[in-house]
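We treat protein structure as text, and this decision shapes the records that our systems exchange. We quote a single record here, exactly as it is kept in our systems:
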Amino acid sequence: MSGFAEFYLYQLQIEKYACKIISISITIRNISTERFTFYFDLRLFMAENNFLGVFEEIVLLAVMKLGKSQAYGVPIMEAIEEATKKRVSTGALYVTLARLEERGFISSEVGEATKERGGRAKKYYQIENAGRQALMDSHEGKRNLGLDALLNPA
């Protein structure tokens, strides 16, 4: 892959997570050959305003409500369906859980395998401080846009 293509992939990866670049260091290797290889050391941090989608927010709230000992796939889905009165796609839930974990809003831990599940283990989720902060930021933004006025008309 050419250096341009590699840089382009790094750029796409950065934009995907809405990150800010703290530092970039470039090392040139193979100086004796005609072809230069660039290695990028990117240190990134998440942007301060990580916007949550509606479903992401609902999933975070369900994980927080259930707590670490009960927050795994089926109970999370049931809690969301009970709260929203809408059916939740299993695929949509697991994709969202993976995305929230990738963004550092939740973490997971694999439990013990059980006979009831055919020897499969449960994956338990818990909300992290970044997830709590994202929920607070989301609520603050909605309140600033007039959500309180909608919920409590004069």
